[in-house]
Amino acid sequence: MTPPDAIRLDWSADRGRADLRIAVLPVNVLDVASLAALARQIGLAREARVLVLTGLPKAFCAGVDVADHVPEPAPIERMLAAMRDVLEALVRTPAITLAAVSGACLGGGAEIVAACDLALATDDARIGFPEIRLACFPPGAAALLPGRVGEARATEWILSGRILSGREAAAAGFVSRSVSETRLPEETDRLVERILETGREALSSARDLMRAGRREALEKRLPVAEDAYRRLAGNAELARAVREFRSGVIPSPSASLGTGSARDPFRVKP
Fold first, then answer.
1. Please, are residues 110 and 149 in contact by the beta-carbon 8 Å criterion?
2. Residue (of 67, 106, 110, 55) closest to 86 by Cα position
């Protein structure tokens, strides 16, 4: 169960800025309830001009709970709906959304970033979509990532499960830029201040123009990706990967499933 203050919304004195902090210990692995709480808080921040999303120092968000990847129709539907609600909330809110990423930003966490208007990351952040190693794939990323980094990079990232540094993610255009860990709060504040200094009407119009691709992706590409994911119901490889992950074995969908390295992206140190 997600603690009441694990996903917390704070406001500036003038309510121009809202800060949404994700702090589900130890490494911000989100279950369906956490995703629902996150979507609600995003909705509550609609009166802010800027909404800043942050996580824990070692993990912006290490992804969606493996338990919610069980290849059965009901759990699949709950997970898809919960993630869809978060992504849609991010592209619908009137607030400009800014993700400040440090540490692990994997799977569902990286999908959340892909739905945001702006993102900054620490140079050594770990960003990627390792779901393919669990014998599944990220529907939200399949919809949003091509518009963020291009079809070729999106395909490589999703099909290989490659994990990038924050610096590499910035070079690819997934985040606006990367900075040192110590500078991330300062650079985030500076960017927020610059946005708050702009005219409201022009900012709103520009926001809608820049979001158009993400909105279209969620309207058209996401349902197709979700239907493809639903076809994983009953998949033996995914069921085995979930079982082995729960038992502490690093998953791989290959015949040698169960062998792996301590550097596996699914294992994030708290």
1. no
2. 110
The pTM assigned to this predicted structure is 0.93
The span from the CA of 59 to the CA of 24, in Å, is: 10
Which has the higher per-residue pLDDT, 238 or 266?
238
Identify whether 26 is preceded by a cis peptide bond (ω within 30 of 0). yes
| Tokens 């994700």, residue located | 22
Find tokens 């990351």 and name the residue: 121
The per-residue pLDDT for 250 is: 62
CA angle 133–66–222, rounded 5-degree value: 75
Q: Which residue, 49, 85, 83, 94, is CA-closest to 193?
A: 49
Burial of 260 (0-12, 13-18, 19+ CB in 10 A): middle
Q: How much of the chain is helix, strand and coil, in % rounded to 5?
A: 50, 20, 30
